[in-house]
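Example 3.2
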Amino acid sequence: MAHSSCCSRWLLIFTFLCWKPHEVGAVTQKPQGLMRNEETADSRSAPAVSLALSANGQVSADTPSSDKEESAERSAPTEKKKEKEHYCESGEFDKPEPVPSESKGYPVQPKSYWWRLRMQQPCVANSDTPYVWKVFEVSFSTLACAPDGHPQLGILTVNKSWSSEDKGIHSNKQLALDMDDSTFWEGMQDDTAQIWLAVEFTIPAEVRCVKFTQCNCPHSARWATLEYNKAYRVGQWSAVDMEASILWGQTSSLAVKEVDTRHAMKKAADSITGEADKVGKEVSNVGTAITNGWTR
């Protein structure tokens, strides 16, 4: 009996060591092709995870790198949030010269009911397809451009708007002015091959800042120009003197420079006065140096 009991125990140990869990409960073997298909479907529905036992007895999961990349892609920013990518060209292009604004011979800050934002240079020039400008939001302000991350104050109320041409009713010009960053305007070229969005305000305004968000895609601009029309006469749009920060998928800004409104004679007089003050200070410094030398 002892010998039989010992053999039984060795038989149980041998069975335990050779046991294959995946074969338990298997009734029939599936065709190889079907198994591959099922594995492919399982890999799409759930990422493979490898488990590791740490020194303190905790189990950690390690997702394969390919699954991590797919997860990162799903959680990546939307098209409108990305930074500049490879869409835009990098060659040189011409920028418009600003037109001085004057009133009765005096320089003045540009002021008008009518303003427009115009694509000066598309991201991809000489394209075989018509140019399109995809813009999510546009705002015009009477105050200087606020730094990134700060709200822009002094936003002007748009009374009317019109554009070069809208690509469709679901991407019309009003969707760039609705303060909703989930909608967008897709502008197309007019008869002169220009793309622009024009607005009329309820009062004549000195626009000091324009902010807009365009797509991070080929349908964007490398450079945009802010223009105004004194009396809304066809073809008489004047570019303002500005500093621009054109971004893709983020907020771009056009900061209108402050105009020196002094008359030419006043500028000359102030210049002479400034030079005289400068010379006077230099003479005074020399005199002080001589005096100090004598008193030593």
